[in-house]
Amino acid sequence: MTDQTTDAPVGRTHKPPKAEFYTYFGIIFVAAVPVAALSWALASVKAGRFQKKGPIKRAWSQARIITPMIFSA
Which of 31, 32, 33, 49 is in Cβ range 3.0-4.6 Å of 62 for a Cys bridge? Predict the structure, then answer.
């Protein structure tokens, strides 16, 4: 019988992000805030009401999409 308790699982493990990742994320987030605010304002004017996703949430989403692309390249 094989002892299964001492074997490490085979596969990829998730590594926590490093300081470099957070630095790039912060830079991209700060750069995305004005663009997200402008697009949010234009979409709100066009729709005649405020959009559900505010400018900070839009910028956060863009930073979450773009930053991993930089590190995967």
Answer: 32
